[in-house]
Amino acid sequence: MTLYTSTIRLPRQRSHAWKRLGESTLFAIGFPFLLLVIWAAWSTAAPATFFPSPVIIAQAFVDTWIGPAFVTDVLPSLGRLALGIILSIVIGITAGTLIGLVRWLRELLEPLLEFFRAIPPPVLIPVAMLLLGITDTMKVVVIVAGAVWPVLLNTIEGVRSTDSVMTETARSFAITRAERLRYLVLPAASPRIMAGVRQTLSVALILMVISEMFASSSGLGYRITYFQRNYLIAEMWSGIVLLGLIGVLLAAVFSIVEKRVLRWYHGIKEVERA
Amino acid sequence: MAPSSTRAVRTTRKLALGTAGIVGFLLAWQLIPALGIISPQYLPYATDTLARLGEEFRDLEFWRNVGRTMLAWFLGLMIASVAATALGTIIGLVPFLRRATHTTVEFLRPIPSVALIPLAILIYGIQLQAALVIIVFASFWQMFVQVLYGVADVDAVARDTARSFALSRSERVRYLILPTALPYLMTGLRLAASVALILAVTAEMVISNPGLGRMIVHSQSASDWVGVYALVIVTGLLGLAVNLGFRLIERRSLSWHQSVRGEIVL
């Protein structure tokens, strides 16, 4: 039996705090910096058409994305991405909780879910284009159709694996259904749900790009393909960098949210490990 | 009731309900165009699509395309998993390297692999190599991160024991690190396999190197919608086969491991 208590952590006396801080910054930026220097040196020593130097890419980045392109291309993409992610999470958690709690429903849908999850999401783009035309709705639908599965399936699993002793305790204390959902089922499933959300984010980003590469006259995916077709190499690289930055930003926001939502869970893990 | 017969009843029930789910889905699919909710022009009848699927299965060119897609998938997965295992083991075992590469890994990992498609096209053109760049980049990280965690997860007591028994380096890798990392490795491989398939098909759609993805795009531009739906089902079946196959491999190779043993007992 593990005793779940909150641990109070006293700030450790750090005499070498500054030294350690400097060391970890050095570790954090040292290797990326080294890579950039090598890349820059390489591209000046032996200029390759498809690999311009980081300086040129940075210049192209500023010229291309800062200004009107931000409003016409970046913002609409980000809007569709955000909408797609939010819808995926909401639909995934709602449907997942329902399917996880109702056993016959789960058994009814299980083979279908297995199949639909296995469909590579980009192949849905032609189908969505046929049914919805080349619209913003279609792009959001494609994002949701591909990105909902990790949250959905993880929620089902998480809800299913709620500790049975706790469920029975809740029942014998006559806790209402809504309260049980709020205080027992969802918190118990939340580590799994968050693991699903993490995958959902990356799938959604991929689908945003792909759907724009396919059928669009604006957006990041469209722009990057346009640059490539017109041999604007540095601009194309700047688009790749921008997509990378969006990916990194999403991951960073996610880890902050996860830390807050799952603070209790990480706390328990730490106590168990100690 | 004896536990074995309870289990039998449960399995039958699961099977029956699962079949009912599939039949219900096909019925709904047949009824939606039949009742005119969506025009049959846009959503072809389930029966037509399945008949088309049967036709495709008798076509050699279709199987060649399946083969091309699966070849790209297999090569990509192989390259990614070998590279990820080698690099992950080395970096995971050396604390200095782990610290030094941490930010780089965290930065590179979330970059959507499809962002590299234009670059891959420029460098390799409409070829298998261009698709491989995308597939390898996407599945490498899945595997790499798992290997990194797995190698670092060695139990402290086991490690100290190994040291006090003076196990050599190769013995430690063989008897200590590999068994610890194997569950992580298999999870990574399963994830990487499904990601690799997604990217294999995606690459064919966007780069248009030959394969199922290109077939879908061709059917789409020929307004052969029955064909598009049939091929979507084919990709789903392939994905399903990959998922189930790797789950099986995972179970087999980890039959000695607590997590799998526990599952079977229950």
In a few lines, what is going on in this structure?
The complex is a heterodimer of chains A (274) and B (266). Chain A is an all-alpha fold and 274 residues long.
What does this structure look like?
The complex is a heterodimer of chains A (274) and B (266). Chain A is an all-alpha fold and 274 residues long. Chain A has one domain (67-273): MetI-like (MetI-like fold, Orthogonal Bundle). Chain A has 11 helices and no strands. Chain A has helices spanning 17-45, 54-65, 68-101, 103-118, 124-132, 136-160, 164-172, 177-214, 220-229, 233-261, 263-273. In chain A, α4 (103-118) packs across α6. Chain A is flat and about 75 Å long. In chain A, 35% of the residues are buried. Helices cover 82% and strands 0% of the residues of chain B. Chain B is mainly α. The mean pLDDT of chain B is 87. Chain B has helices spanning 3-34, 46-57, 60-93, 95-108, 117-124, 128-152, 156-164, 169-206, 212-221, 225-253, 258-265. Chain B has a single domain (43-265), classed as Orthogonal Bundle (MetI-like fold). At the A-B interface, α1, α4, α5, α8 and α9 of A face α1, α4, α5, α8 and α9 of B.
